[in-house]
Design brief:
Radius of gyration: 36 Å
Strand content: 5-15%
Distance between the termini: 68 Å
Structural class: alpha+beta
Number of strands: 5
Strand order of the largest sheet: 2-3-1-4-5
Largest sheet: 5 strands, mixed
Mean pLDDT: 86
Length: 377
């Protein structure tokens, strides 16, 4: 049951920040504890309370139990703030209902006064400390007023009881505040550690120039694919034609910019569950999950056309258009292992270069003939 409740909380509050998520789960366990306490009190009332007071305490405890169950249902349904304030309000109303009842009866039973400490300590876990100080002072003042107007106060050390309640409430507030602050620091440290781990992970799997994934991540992706029972994806290997000439003519800084712009085109061309890698130098590899041969060829031709629109140097009217050769392979048609599928797509890319570059060629077996799209400028 608790695991089911945890899943419901995670589903309703999946976008909550860490501190809010902690507060939500903490409130659930507080409510669960209070429900157990209310059930135990009902049992005590049924067994040991005098008949004259039994009906009133049944009403107080039974209504408190019903409200607590409703507050928990609100928390599990995504209404955390309403649930929190309902629970906090009830924690103060319950003890005070008992206190006022015993006061009106002049029964001399002052034990319910001790229960006002509990809501102060619990509420301090959720609310800022300054309001809790004032709430403790207000409760102590109300208790003092009741004691001073009670004719039977001389029968007990009311001043010591009042001091005990006040000091315990303040200490409980401070303790809850310190625990909450320690938790917040712990969460901050964990978030910072998680951020550092993510940065290290990105450094390990991404190419620093383009931000694309590197060959390490490519191998990890292949491992995941080939662990499945029926892997199905397409590979595009993209090579910028005559890139060395671009470097020699315009400089390596211009070459780096071209590589980044090509990487941007590839990133824009893929879906969120596809993978774009810098394979090495001016070569790139796209892993298109669940993509069939026709869609892969269409995407490859679109990428080739977008690369043709890159202007290397706006001030050079004599420059040749930037072009790319692209090989296409498909799993499982061209292989069911990393080495086999890479060999097939590399062979298709080599064939595109041999056929004059600036074209898309499918690996053998994908189509009966290679698809070629010559330059049209």
């Amino acid at each position: 049951m608790i695991q089911l409740a945890e899943r419901l909380l995670d589903r309703h509050y999946c976008n909550a920040d860490t501190n809010t998520a902690f507060s939500i789960h903490l409130l659930f366990y507080v409510q669960l504890s209070l429900i157990g306490f209310a059930v135990a009190v009902l049992a005590v009332v049924a067994l040991f309370t005098l008949p004259s007071a039994k009906a009133v305490y049944f009403l107080i405890c039974g209504s408190s139990l019903a409200v607590l169950c409703g507050a928990m249902a609100l928390n599990l349904s995504g209404y955390h703030r309403v649930s929190l304030w309902t629970t906090v309000t009830l924690m103060f109303i319950g003890p005070w209902a008992s206190i006022l009842y015993e006061y009106l009866l002049r029964s001399g039973d002052y034990m319910p006064m001790m229960y006002v400490i509990i809501p102060i300590q619990i509420t301090a876990m959720f609310i800022k400390v300054k309001p809790m100080y004032w709430l403790a002072v207000l409760q102590t003042g109300a208790l003092a007023a009741l004691m001073l107007t009670d004719p039977g106060r001389s029968a007990y050390n009311w001043l010591s009881a009042l001091c005990f309640i006040f000091v315990t409430s303040m200490l409980g507030t401070i303790t809850s505040y310190v625990l909450r602050k320690q938790y917040e620091r712990l969460i901050h440290s964990r978030n910072a550690l998680s951020h550092s781990e993510q940065r290290l992970r990105d450094i390990a799997i991404r190419d620093p120039l383009t931000g694309l994934y590197n060959r390490r991540f490519m191998d990890e992706t292949f491992a995941v694919h080939f662990e499945s029972l029926a892997p199905m994806f397409s590979l595009l290997m993209v090579d910028v034609d005559h890139f060395k000439t671009v470097n020699d003519t315009y400089g390596h800084s211009c070459g780096d910019e071209i590589i980044q712009r090509v990487a941007g085109i590839l990133t824009s061309a893929i879906r969120k569950y596809d993978v774009a890698c810098r394979y090495g130098g001016d070569e790139f590899l796209l892993i298109l999950n669940g993509c069939g041969p026709d869609d892969a060829m269409a995407k490859a031709n679109k990428i080739k056309q977008d690369i043709e629109n890159i202007i290397v140097d706006p001030q050079d009217d004599t420059q040749r258009p930037l072009t790319a050769s692209i090989g296409v392979a498909q799993c499982p048609l061209n292989g069911t292992s990393r080495d086999a599928i890479l060999k097939a797509v590399d062979a298709a890319l080599y064939q595109a270069k041999e056929n004059g570059r600036n074209r898309v060629v499918a690996a053998e077996g994908v189509f009966t003939a290679s698809a070629q799209t010559p330059h049209t400028r």
